[in-house]
Design a protein that fits this description.
This protein is an alpha+beta fold and about 200 residues long. It has 2 domains: about 70 residues, no CATH class; about 110 residues. Helices cover about 25% and strands about 30% of the residues. The protein has 4 helices and 8 strands. The chain has a 5-stranded antiparallel β-sheet. A 3-stranded mixed β-sheet has the order 1-8-7, covered by helices on one side. It starts with a strand and ends in an 18-residue tail after the last helix. The model has no long low-confidence stretch (mean pLDDT about 95).
């Protein structure tokens, strides 16, 4: 390949040298399986991002409306930011996290918030799964050139980039295709890579 865009999330530093200044935060998400009647009732729901002021476990949550997953079941998904959760220190630690199945305590904290927000929720079952979020020092994703004209990166969603992933991808693609920052409304310096 003449040009490469590295967009490997938490695994970006396995592909670049020197490593980028990315903090990897292990997270747990909770899925509430919904019966058809509850799916229909909650269908108009919008995505929610919510700061929690008085929660001792979580500083914020996000919640997605009902979505049908590849297993053909429909789930309501909630995830969040634990207060004072340490970053993973190595890829081995991250691998162990994914093999652990996630945190039951974090899943219970998410379930409590979910049922506070939708007290009459009818769920068939609740499942939790491990996840990871990747943070940059400036809390903007890295969208930058690593090697002029050849290697580019888009990494570090900071726990809130799913909603803007199309635009992040567009900015990275324009950078790759034009070899220059292609957006007048956003400053390229806000997305510059910082290395360890």
């Amino acid at each position: 390949a003449h040009k490469v865009l590295i967009a490997a999330g938490a695994y970006t530093n396995m592909l670049v040298d020197p490593p980028l200044d990315l903090a990897l935060k292990p997270r747990t998400i909770l899925l509430a399986e919904l019966p058809p009647s509850e799916t229909a009732r909650l269908a108009p729901m919008l995505t929610l991002i919510y700061k929690l002021k008085d929660n001792s476990d979580l500083s914020s949550i996000y919640m997605l409306p009902p979505i049908e997953y590849p297993d053909k079941k429909t789930y309501l998904k909630i995830g969040g930011d634990l207060r004072d959760e340490p970053a993973a220190r190595s890829f081995d630690e991250l691998r162990a996290w994914f093999n652990s199945g996630g945190s039951r305590a974090e899943a219970e904290a998410l379930k409590t918030v979910l049922l506070d927000l939708i007290p009459d929720l009818t769920a068939t079952t609740f499942l939790h799964k491990p996840c990871v979020t990747t943070y940059t020092p400036h809390r903007h994703p890295f969208i930058d050139t690593l090697e002029t004209g050849r290697i580019f990166v888009a990494a570090g969603g900071c726990g809130s980039s799913a909603k803007s992933s199309n635009e992040i991808g567009r900015l990275a693609a324009v950078l790759l295709l034009q070899n220059s920052w292609g957006d007048e409304a956003l400053a390229a310096d806000d997305f510059k890579v910082k290395s360890f």
